[in-house]
Design a protein that fits this description.
eight-stranded antiparallel beta sheet
């Protein structure tokens, strides 16, 4: 007699098998869409660019540029089919660029304090408007972005943009600020190094000097430009964005930006109210109430105004650049105000100091932090064969109290492309790491555009060098352009290997986004199999489950060796899964789904035979028990 092990398991299994198959022309109802956020990072200037010239230091006319309008409904549907829930449009706020927009009332920027020709998206010049490069009609650039927000929402995805709280462009000047809002520095007392309500710090009595270049660097690659003279007028000099207090910063300082003053005195002491003891355990609503009526530095108010402005435009969340360089009390103030306006706002912070993670989550009220130093760095070392998979188990254990807050990624605009020789030299090597990264915890997963088709970042586009897709210059992104296929966004120019890679990413991301079990409990199976014949430190296995679904995930990080072993399940897991003696189907949901495996349970011992070819992962759903014969 057939024994039912999971209530509704057959229905779930049928749904999962359908969800893991090739996408139908009309998507099936997502009955069990209870998974985790999936973030797709678009570098907006590059995403829609069809031009393949790629001349180093090339102009818009030579190399082209992507526009908001290029990210049309067809493009957004291709993103949505990957399981994406949130699109992070990088480089949207108006930043310094080397292009003449004076006809639109925009002042020219000086190449001596701009990195690249297209400029850094993290040197914001006007927080109340958007990069004019991204608009078909610069006069209507804000309306064109608002239309993109609406298109994204129409595909049932949320919109994230950057806020860069630590620094702004040296040339900050808002043409679009609302009534009652003043520019950063507009009301500063420049005769003192520090005042609480100054927006900047000043090097009193000294004028700014352009840094001495390194490695024969010349702005714009040496091209003649009226403002490229090795000088920039700033009297007195301001502290540089990375905290340099020199009137002439070093070339490797963030010399194109100036540091924002949040009421931290030059000696490091705080000039603002501090949170009472115990507020790490208080709700975001309690934090919001705490700040009501408190006197805070002017820079705090300015960034709250900026965030509320974009919330009013329909933006659903923010990625905060270098958040750990800003005091955690400010984040309590800002994030509680954001959540007061939109309780569902998605708040992601770039923080690299593990000792501060819990403060920025619990006191700063961040939803998510980059898991770069722990999970990303561990997976990168494994992919480069510099480390074994033991490190994954250690990271996950160490993060167990905050794991749902640690956003996982394998690429972003700051990191090397996986397929670059400087990283792994092959996008295929990321497959097991992607499975682990996306499915191991309750955290969101993020991918960077082009990652899913193996972009190698091989171009030297001007400022910077190959291995990272440029964020400073105008360029095309070759592998992504092959997927874009002249605006069809159908992969029509991809190689078979690139098409296969994208399908792999689609399957993994949709599992993460749509299957509730991956938002449930976790148990590593790595240490339990340390002495299992055939299982070694190039393999990693874990279980995920909730009341509806029970999953096993096993990945082979070896690029050359097949692994065969009997994966052992510990007694405690059998008890948690309430498994009785018998055989159970394990339904494969990644790659080859034609042959279910068998989990055998006998006297509180359980195992399943696993064979993994190089770089293969198995994602197995526990199905029904198999009838005795």
């Amino acid at each position: 007699m057939k024994q039912k092990i999971l209530i509704g398991c057959s229905l779930i299994a049928l749904y999962v098998l359908k969800a893991c198959s090739s996408p139908p022309k009309q998507a099936a109802p997502e009955t069990f869409a209870q998974g985790k956020p999936v973030v797709y990072q678009i570098f907006t200037r590059l995403y829609g660019n069809k031009n393949t010239t790629n001349k180093p230091w090339g102009t818009i006319e030579e190399n082209g540029v992507g526009k908001f309008n290029d990210i049309d409904a067809t493009a957004l549907k291709s993103i949505k089919e990957l399981g994406v829930t949130h699109v992070w449009y990088t480089g949207v706020p108006h930043h310094a660029v080397i292009r003449d927009y004076t006809a639109f009332g925009i002042s020219n920027d000086d190449p001596d304090v701009v990195k690249g020709r297209a400029g850094s998206p993290y040197a914001v010049k006007d927080y109340y408007n958007v990069n004019p490069d991204l608009a078909v009609n610069p006069v209507k650039r804000l309306q064109e972005f608002e239309a993109l927000i609406a298109r994204t929402h129409a595909q049932d995805m949320k919109v994230i943009i950057d806020i860069v709280p630590n620094h702004v462009a040296r040339t900050y000047q808002s043409l679009s600020k609302p009534a009652g809002v003043s520019d950063f520095g507009e009301q500063d007392n420049t005769s003192v190094e520090y005042a609480r309500d100054n927006n900047f710090y000043y090097v009193v009595g000294e004028n700014f000097a352009v840094p001495e270049p390194l490695n024969n660097y010349r702005p714009l690659g040496g091209e003649d430009h009226a403002l490229s003279d090795g000088k920039f007028d700033e009297k007195p000099a301001k502290w540089t964005g990375n905290g340099s207090r020199l009137a002439q910063p070093k070339f490797d300082d963030w010399y194109e930006t100036v540091k924002i003053n949040y009421g931290v005195r030059p000696d490091g002491s705080k000039d603002f109210p501090e949170l009472p003891a115990g507020y790490a355990q208080q709700s975001v609503q309690a934090h919001y109430q705490f700040w009501q009526g408190k006197s805070v530095p002017d820079s705090w108010i300015k960034f709250r105004q900026i965030a509320e402005y974009w919330l009013g435009k329909g933006v659903d969340g923010f990625r905060f650049d270098m958040a750990e360089m800003v005091p955690v009390e400010f984040w309590s103030y800002l994030n509680s105000a954001i959540k007061h306006k939109n309780p569902n706002a998605f708040l992601l912070a770039e923080v690299y100091n593990p000792q501060e993670y819990r403060n920025y989550i619990r006191l700063g009220k961040m939803d998510y932090l980059y898991d770069k130093v722990e999970m990303y760095d561990s997976l990168k070392a494994i992919m480069q064969n510099k480390s074994g998979t033991d490190s994954i188990a250690k990271v996950q254990t160490g993060m167990s109290d905050i794991e749902e807050h640690m956003l996982h990624f394998l690429e972003n605009h700051d990191e090397q492309r996986i397929a670059s020789p400087e990283f792994a030299d092959s996008a295929e090597l990321a497959k097991p790491a992607m499975v682990v990264s996306a499915l191991i915890s309750r955290s969101p997963t993020m991918i960077y555009f082009g990652q899913e088709v193996g972009e190698a970042g091989a171009l030297n586009s001007g400022f910077g060098s190959a291995s990272r897709t440029t964020i400073f210059d105008y360029a095309g992104v070759p592998a992504h352009q092959r997927f874009m296929n002249n605006g069809k966004f159908d992969g029509g120019q991809l190689s078979p290997a690139e098409q296969s890679l994208r399908e792999f990413y689609r399957q993994v991301l949709k599992l993460s986004a749509e299957q509730s079990g991956f938002n449930g409990q976790y148990r590593e199976l790595h240490n339990a199999n340390a002495h299992t014949s055939g299982y070694d430190n190039r393999v990693f296995a874990f279980a995920r489950w909730d009341e509806q679904q029970k999953w096993l995930v096993i990945s082979n990080f070896s690029a050359v060796d097949t692994r065969e072993f009997e994966l052992q399940l510990p007694k405690e897991l059998l008890e948690q899964w309430n498994l009785k003696d018998g055989d159970y189907e394990m339904l494969s949901c990644l790659g080859d789904k034609s042959s279910p495996l068998v989990l055998r349970v006998n006297h509180q011992q359980a195992s399943v035979k696993i064979k993994l070819v190089p770089l293969e992962s198995k994602v197995l759903l526990l199905g029904d028990s198999i009838p005795n014969h």
